[in-house]
Design goal:
Blueprint lengths: L3 E8 L3 E4 H11 L5 H12 L5 E4 L3 H4 L5 H27 L8 E5 L9 H9 L6 E5 L6 H15 L4 E8 L12 H9 L3 E8 L8 E9 L7 E5 L4 E5 L3 H19 L7 E6 L4 H12 L6 H10 L6 H10 L8 E8 L3 E8 L1
Parallel strand pairs: 4-5, 4-6, 11-12
Antiparallel strand pairs: 1-7, 2-3, 6-7, 8-13, 9-10, 12-13
Helix pairs in contact: 1-2, 2-7, 4-5, 8-9, 10-11
């Protein structure tokens, strides 16, 4: 039974700032720190390849000290709002009725909600009372593709069904004002907030690119490479400097065996749909794909326009390809990395 990606929609929150307009806030934030660290922080923001980012909070709120509880309340409130908006936008685009959704997957790692986001969306949109729900909460940047993987498993086992994958992330809600570590500075420089929704179907008449195959690749002994440490102040970013070189060392083991299992080679892939991460990760992967005569230009553009929105970002890249109305029989490879440490990938065919 084939599974097809019917529609992708995205939604940004109401607040936005260009990086040049955020620099005064960074300057004030670093005022009491070593001048060298302050100069380095400013340089990181300037060189992050992010021109603009969106947020569920205005910059004054982001750079104001608040408790973990207060920030998480903002995250919870706004996640429901933006999640509802992006799901409704996708359903309208697909001309699907809310009651036609059989499976709802919500993806987020930047706040804590119990019940999870999907429960609120079921109530607010009056989805069917027997809709199957799955919250994906602790897989970070990789989870946009994780959601597609779980949707494919469900739809392949259940012909004639429909699934919605909704990724909602607010990394700005995790920014710690009293953390001057390089991990916190780098994450503040590259991350932004956003939401995305993918509608998939295993109906016979379904349209859109086919989700042919999916796979996860897990790195051993790398649990501390990326993630959050839960502290009294909030979610403290963990980001090992060795992430790019670790990706490079495993790159061929991730990509080529997956394609070989599907009787393909990298030369058969027409479109690379890659989650940008940050500048160093993107430049590392860009160089690796460049050696294979491929490019990730759409990934670069999404990072420039929105920043890294964690799990939602790769779906923003996917939306760009969906909007291009590509020729039939062309292949796309989705790839993202996240805590675990792991890589998630998916193969699509137009």
């Amino acid at each position: 039974m084939s599974v097809k990606i019917h529609t992708v929609s995205t939604q940004v929150p109401e607040y936005s700032k260009e990086t040049k307009d955020i620099l005064p806030f960074v300057d004030a934030w670093m005022a009491g720190q070593d001048p060298r660290l302050k100069r380095k922080a400013i340089k990181i923001f300037e060189n992050a390849l992010v021109d603009k980012r969106y947020s569920i909070m205005n910059p004054e709120e982001v750079f104001t000290e608040t408790s973990f509880e207060e920030r998480n309340k903002i995250y919870s409130r706004e996640a429901v709002k933006i999640g509802e908006k992006v799901l409704l936008k996708a359903l309208k685009k697909a001309q699907w009725k809310t009651e036609s959704v059989d499976y709802i997957i919500t993806v987020s790692c930047t706040g804590i909600m119990i019940p999870s986001l999907d429960a609120y969306l079921i109530n607010r949109l009056q989805l069917r009372q027997d809709v199957v729900r799955l919250p994906v909460t602790e897989m970070g940047c990789a989870a946009g593709i994780s959601g597609l993987i779980y949707a494919k498993e469900f739809l392949q086992a259940n012909p004639g069904k429909r699934a919605a994958v909704i990724a909602v992330e607010s990394p700005t809600a995790t920014f710690l004002l009293n953390d001057y570590s390089m991990a916190n500075i780098v994450s503040a420089a590259i991350f932004g907030d956003g939401a995305a929704c993918v509608l998939l179907s295993s109906e016979e008449q379904a349209s859109g690119p086919e989700l042919i195959a999916t796979e996860m690749y897990h790195f051993f002994d790398a649990e501390k490479m990326m993630g959050f440490e839960i502290t009294n102040d909030g979610l403290k970013m963990i980001l090992d400097q060795k992430v790019p070189e670790t990706i490079a060392a495993h790159f061929n083991k991730i990509i080529h065996p997956f394609l070989e299992k599907n009787k393909l080679d990298i030369k058969d892939i027409n479109h690379l749909i890659f989650h940008p991460g940050g500048r160093k990760i993107m430049e590392t992967v860009d160089a690796l794909f460049g050696e294979l005569d491929k490019n990730i230009n759409d990934t670069k553009e999404v990072l420039r326009l929105f920043g890294n929105m964690s799990s939602a970002t790769v779906l923003y890249v996917l939306e760009r390809f969906m909007d291009k109305q590509l020729p039939e029989n062309e292949y796309g490879l989705l790839l993202s990395f996240g805590p675990g440490f792991s890589a998630q990938q998916a193969l699509v065919k137009w």
